[in-house]
Design goal:
six-stranded mixed sheet, Helicase, Ruva Protein, domain 3, 23 strands, alpha/beta, five-stranded parallel sheet, Rossmann fold, 46% helix, 737 residues
């Protein structure tokens, strides 16, 4: 049987669970609200001796749980001054082997937990170890005295907590893979193998599995942590863990409202990441201190609001398409208003789904959008009566019924109904009154939609408002996420491309003439000089950092606004495509512009990285009835927009969307379009074309334009395919840049 000192750390934890499970569970899970399945899964994994990876949203207890696994361990004996904490003098160990006998010392339990916090600055040397240049000069590169063990080696016979594992660069990940595999590790500076006995506990965000290479995640049992689902349990946790310094100020009365505000940040459609339980604890601590300023012992709702504006906005993250038009404080204020106003009577309260349906209907139906835009409410009312199943008609009818019932009680009295003549007159009066009420109800309907932000009043009528546009972007977002791909410098040893080309260091190479001194890696340069046995650094020893650099992409969508685009909702899908392209570009830091063309061409949106701006301008586009199709001028306008930016700034690409043949200008519209495409291509701008295959289309011309522009030509039969087709083309362009 193995002694306590010689047993492996995995077996040590296993024995602790078998012999005293209750004590282990108390150590691991005290003050934490976790599901029974998660607790059982972690214990089972520890019994099996497996490494563990905890993923979940920020503040859900991942790091706390990981560190507590290390707290299970107790102190043990080890060789004095051995950085690997060998429990006996081992010949395989470069630091305590092949030497005279060494005394044993007590190794405290706290030193058996080593935390490595992931960041872009982590290097393989931090994990495995590195040469000490001065010692290497004196003792030689292959001497153990010249090598300083890294954190993973110093955690030998203990637990390594890999916090924020997903933030580590790929070189460090490769070193971790080497550390995790097997029970020994080989270092190039030594001929010996080094024994390694560690249990790895990693933590990461929800996107960790998308970032980490499969040959790393294959070594872990993976568990997902969540925010506390039960409201009462979260209240207890927050109150128990918060440090309430003002003992005489009671927080119980406002705790319900405070927790409700926090929980709504996690489900709000405009928030990507809500406030964590950790943030909730800080919020409660702040609330507890507020009354002390005015020497009071009670907390008001206004203080709840003020505390929220200072404690919460920076603990939540807005959706990308919302962040360009709103601040976190704005969204938080809306949530607080909803919580405080809950229970008040509101006859016209609309659900999230109803608001989204109304926004899409107004955006897609020109028979509704145009009367709204120009203030033709009589026409709008007639069209709504013809289509009583529309979302706008249903809302109007509900408001009208409410108003009509109240008016009915006032107008139709028993006294008036006693006389036949008066009743006849009343019928005429009620007919006129009903029309007035319908108009009044329509005004209330439009004001209601304006109040919640679906519509926005202009000089003539109503346009799509901020809430409506963000609803439309939200509906597009899930489809866009599915189309996103990563592009980077190139493939690395673990088989994935570097994400998005953000300038992260992915390796080193020899210095070349023209390299900036800022890119020199001093650590790798020293290592190379030592390897070459130099007494002074020479040019051949200089190493520079290699970064993942991806050229930015500037895209211009050229949209056909000729009359035929009204068929089969083609114009709406073109608008939807513009919004989707803008959303997809956020993840790559690209920019998008929009040009429209018919008889001539117009700049709709200058190149920008703001999806809201693009969507708001594109939604306002109307078809040009009985207009010609000047494809050549559309290409020219797109080229002029892109030429404002140098080729060195970004790769430039045009996507032309049309369902028709070139019909302007005379005498040869096809040749004019071809000449403009040739001029554009000579400026280094690529062109792809999307032909919506109709009788009026000219696929041959579109194919030729794409060939000249060194792009792709796509023919689609269904307008629903337009968005995915364009996003697919952009992904191909990104991967080739």
């Amino acid at each position: 049987m193995e002694s306590k000192e010689s047993i492996s750390v995995k077996n040590e934890i296993r024995n602790l669970i078998i012999n005293d499970r209750e004590k282990v569970e108390l150590t691991l899970f005290r003050d934490m609200v976790l599901s029974d399945s998660l607790k059982s899964g972690i214990l089972t994994s520890l019994l099996s001796g497996h490494h563990i990876l905890l993923i979940g949203p920020p503040g859900s207890g991942k790091t706390k749980l990981a560190m507590r696994i290390g707290e299970i361990l107790s102190s043990r004996k080890g060789v004095r001054d051995c950085p690997l904490h060998c429990y006996i003098q081992r010949n395989e160990c470069p630091w305590c082997g092949h030497k005279e006998h060494k005394d044993l010392m007590n190794i405290e339990a706290s030193t058996r937990i080593v935390r490595i916090q992931g960041s872009s600055e982590i290097t393989p040397e931090d994990i495995i170890g590195a040469l000490d240049p001065d010692a290497a000069m004196r003792y030689g590169m292959r001497s153990s005295k010249a090598f300083i063990p890294g954190k993973a080696l110093r955690a030998n016979h203990g637990v390594v907590v890999l916090d924020f594992l997903d933030r580590m660069p790929e070189r460090a990940m490769n070193a971790l893979i080497q550390t995790i595999e097997g029970d020994t590790i080989f270092i190039s500076h030594f001929d010996e193998k080094i024994p390694l006995d560690v249990l790895m506990i990693g933590t990461g965000s929800l996107s960790t599995l998308e970032i980490l290479p499969s040959n790393m995640t294959d070594h872990f049992d993976i568990f997902k942590t969540e925010y506390i689902s039960d409201s009462d349990a979260e209240k207890r946790t927050i109150k128990n863990q918060a440090v309430l310094r003002e003992k005489d100020i009671e927080v119980s009365e406002i705790l319900d409202d405070a927790v409700e505000i926090l929980r709504r940040t996690r489900t709000h459609n405009e928030i990507k990441r809500g406030v964590s339980t950790r943030g909730a604890i800080k919020y409660l601590e702040l609330i507890n201190a507020y009354p002390r300023i005015d020497k009071r012992k009670s907390i008001t709702r206004e203080e709840l609001r003020v505390a929220a504006t200072s404690a919460l906005p920076y603990r939540l993250e807005l959706q990308d398409y919302v962040a360009s038009v709103k601040r976190p404080e704005d969204v938080l204020s809306e949530i607080i208003d909803d919580v405080f106003d809950e229970g008040k009577e509101n006859d016209f309260l609309l659900s999230k789904d109803s608001i989204a349906a109304l926004a899409k209907e107004i955006a897609t139906r020109s028979d509704i959008k145009r009367p709204l835009k120009y203030g033709f409410y009589d026409i709008l009312l007639k069209r709504m009566k013809k289509d009583p199943d529309s979302e706008l008609s249903k809302l109007h009818q509900g408001i009208y019924n409410s108003m009509y019932q109240e008016s009915d009680k006032v107008e139709l009295t028993e006294e008036l109904l006693e006389k036949v003549e008066e009743a006849r007159k009343m019928k005429d009066r009620m007919k006129a009154r009903k029309k007035e009420l319908e108009i009044d109800a329509l005004n209330v309907t439009l004001d209601t939609l304006s109040d919640i932000g679906v519509l926005e009043k202009n000089d003539n009528g109503f346009l799509m408002g901020q809430k409506g546009i963000t609803c439309l972007l939200e509906m597009l977002f899930p489809n866009v996420v599915g189309e996103l791909r990563f592009a980077g410098y190139g493939k690395h040893s673990f088989g994935k491309k570097s994400t998005q080309g953000e300038g992260k260091i992915i390796g080193t190479r020899k210095y070349q003439l023209g390299d900036s001194y800022k890119s020199v890696s001093y650590k790798d340069t020293l290592r190379e000089a030592i390897r070459n046995r130099r007494e002074e650094i020479q040019r051949e020893d200089i190493m520079v950092n290699r970064k993942d650099i991806r050229s930015k992409l500037y895209i211009v969508l050229a949209l056909d606004l000729s009359g035929t685009m009204s068929e089969l909702d083609k114009l709406w899908y073109a608008k939807e495509t513009a919004g989707a392209v803008a959303l997809s570009s956020l993840g790559y830091k690209d920019k998008v512009g929009v040009v429209s063309f018919s008889n001539l061409a117009d700049d709709v949106v200058e190149i920008t990285d703001k999806p809201y701006e693009i969507m708001s301008k594109v939604l306002d586009l109307d078809l040009h009835e009985n207009a010609f199709t000047n494809i050549g001028y559309g290409i020219r306008k797109s080229k002029e927009m892109l030429l404002k930016y140098k080729k060195s700034t970004a790769a430039r690409h045009i996507i032309l969307i049309s369902d028709g043949d070139a019909t302007a200008p005379d005498p040869s519209p096809d040749n004019f379009a071809i000449r403009e495409a040739q001029k554009t291509a000579r400026k280094g701008i690529t062109i792809s074309t999307v032909c919506i295959n109709q009788i009026s289309a000219n696929p041959e011309l579109m194919k030729r334009l794409a060939k000249i522009g060194r792009g792709k030509m796509y023919t689609i039969e269904k307008t629903e395919e337009l968005t995915s087709t364009v996003l697919g083309d952009i992904n191909k362009v990104r991967s080739n840049k």
